[in-house]
Amino acid sequence: MFENKIKITAPFWQQYINLIREEMLPFQWSVLNDEADIKIEKERDADHIPAEKSHAIENFKIAAGISKGKHYGMVFQDSDVYKWLEAVAYALHQHQDNALQKIADEVIDLLAKAQQSDGYLNTYFTIEAPERRYKRLYQSHELYCAGHFIEAAVGYYSVTKNQKILDIACKLADHIDDIFGSEDGKIHGYDGHEEIELALLRLFELTKNDKYKNLANFFLYERGKNPNFFKEQQKTDPSTKPVIEGMESFKPEYYQNHKSILEQETAEGHAVRVMYMCTGMAMLARLNNDEKMFEACKRLWKNIVTKRMYITGGIGSTVIGEAFTADYDLPNDTMYCETCASIGLIFFANNMLKLDVDSQYADIMEKALYNTVIDGMALDGKHFFYVNPLEVVPQLSHKDPGKSHVKTVRPAWFGCACCPPNLARLLSSLDEYMYTVKDDVIYSNLYVSNKSDFKINNQVISIEEITDYPWDGKITFKVNSEATFKLGLRIPSWANRYLFKLNGKEFTPKIEKGYAIIDRTWEKGDIVIFDIQIEANFVCANPLVREDYGKVAIQRGPIIYCAEGVDNGDNLHLITIDTNKKINEYKDSDSLGDIVKLELEAEKLILDKQWNNILYRNIMEKQENVEIIKLKLIPYFCAFNRGENEMAIWLKTK
């Protein structure tokens, strides 16, 4: 981790990095300590979701014997603290902050006290039900929480060299290895929510201890061998009380244990679980040179991005199980598109790039990042979406129980608060996703202004990238070292017109798997310009996506645009677009930031007196009157920052 030194200088992303360190992390810390004066909302209407407070830090104090009381919150509440801690690590990597590090170090001291003598670390079962440890794995999230702590430990140790957090993590991983495995007397099973697998592999990469890689290998390959494992394993639980209500009816597909992972051809079940499983699979395939595992990754990837992914990079089509459904089933107003799921998709894509540098993976990484992921956070850094809708009518969210998960404004926090700290840890570590270095090639995946040093063949190569991307497509690379290496520049799948220049002269590079490869002995001061013509375009969906047939979306560069009621009035479904009309673009600075907005002429149906007190009528009697409007569009990630109103991405065409 952090093998190369990458300093992000892009104003677009610096504002997020600074917002996380200065606003988001302190705010989340106050929430975790129950000190924030906020309303915590349920992510959907369900009586069993605890939403009075977080209590996450207090749970650790009780488990450590510092305080007395009962556990409060979801069974996986510990993971909120772990993801916050990992985000702190990356924030410290970007900018040293002694006060923030002191708080984090004190949290680590608390975790050490809460850890049991055998290495076990989980507040719910330590406080409420130690006799139920590992007895109800499909609900307990014990290994899921352990995985998030191990990831936090790897990140924090890599930045600060804090030995205590690494010791806690290794003690916990050693404990898990004592309990799980193929040997007699161990549990031949796995957690209901994947996460431990990729965490163990990250721990292996840091410590080089094969035990952790072998345990991850066991968890992945054991999954799905016995689809009835969870039901059979539950019989060992001395209690019949559910750990999480509402999960008893979920089928094996929900947990991805309906088949061996090498036999799974479609993404099934809970979307975040699928993404974490696939990330672990891609990591193991790379570390073990496992070709069969790699082929399984490619099958699942192809199914997701060609048949089960939204135009925003969102995944998960239904609130029931927060899950995938069927090919081309992509409803816009009842979808789930959980923020964590798109974050997981980025994890998967990044690890596929490490396996096979192919621009298709970086394309999806970019799509998810600029749309669903940053849509998950308000521009103030203190309000969040769990669900990222593609169409919203406020009164339906308020009155239709089937749309209670479709929020009309971003809440400050959730009873199930997995998304906010997950956002923080991803965006704080954005530099880890910008480049892939393989052999003697530096591949640029995400175009973000930065100053970086790379190590290749005992050479330190300094490169500066300058761009106003995603608003402008001119990307300049200045090489500040004399060295021999290859520079690979991703050609985005949406790019139709572009050119390359080397030291002022236009040239045509070799293209390999969507990357322009520039192979030369570089001189200090060499300048490469990759100039992409970024312009707004109409995009249509596969005709098998029923909800989008006869509609278009508007995309400019990597950014999907949407219409909001605050700009265009209510009843956005009455708007019709003529795709022959010109889309006008203009840069604007207002409460939404310094962004490019779009405008085009469209028609909107006038609801006149002919429809008063009439629900249906003979089509021969219908007279349609329309008005010409200037349809205004903003980037999707900016939506819902100006109060409650309608929003739509897909609009009807003539």
Automatic annotation (TrEMBL):
Query: SUPFAM superfamilies under this entry?
Result: Six-hairpin glycosidases (SSF48208)
User: Taking every annotated instance into account, which residue ranges of this chain make up the domain Non-reducing end beta-L-arabinofuranosidase-like GH127 catalytic?
Assistant: 6-431
Name of the featured protein = Glycoside hydrolase family 127 protein
Whose protein is this, by species? Megamonas funiformis YIT 11815
Pfam family for this entry, one? Glyco_hydro127M
Q: InterPro entries in the record, alphabetically?
A: 6-hairpin_glycosidase_sf, Beta-AFase-like, Beta-AFase-like_GH127_C, Beta-AFase-like_GH127_cat, Beta-AFase-like_GH127_middle
PANTHER family linked to this entry:
DUF1680 DOMAIN PROTEIN (AFU_ORTHOLOGUE AFUA_1G08910) (PTHR43465)
- At the top level, the lineage of the source is Bacteria
Q: Where is the Non-reducing end beta-L-arabinofuranosidase-like GH127 middle domain?
A: 442-533
Non-reducing end beta-L-arabinofuranosidase-like GH127 C-terminal domain mapped to chain residues:
537-652
